[in-house]
Design a protein that fits this description.
The chain is of the alpha+beta class. The chain is built from two helices and five strands.
Length: 89
């Protein structure tokens, strides 16, 4: 399993971005979390099978209709943490 950290910039807070992300992740059997950051971006940590992770990362690049994603930064994330399900914080 791979874990990635994505930081999504744009109009992504207050538009349901984290909840939509959690639904998309759960449908794909992914684990992790989506969190609002103080700078107005959303951090997504996602863990799972590589193909499903890549599909979610591609979705994050545009997000739900209510969002306006300007850019996304993605990096492989080394963690000893094992997520149980996907949470939106």
């Amino acid at each position: 399993m791979k874990t990635y950290r994505a930081q999504v910039f744009g109009i992504v807070q207050g538009v349901g971005f984290r909840c939509h992300t959690a639904r998309m992740a759960e449908k794909s059997g992914l684990c992790g979390r989506a969190t609002n950051l103080a700078d107005g971006s959303v951090e997504v940590l996602v863990q799972g099978e590589p193909e499903a992770v890549q599909q979610l990362l591609a979705w994050l690049a545009h997000g739900p209709r209510t969002a306006c994603v300007e850019r996304i930064e993605v990096e492989e994330y080394e963690t000893v943490e094992s997520f149980n399900g996907f949470r939106a914080y």
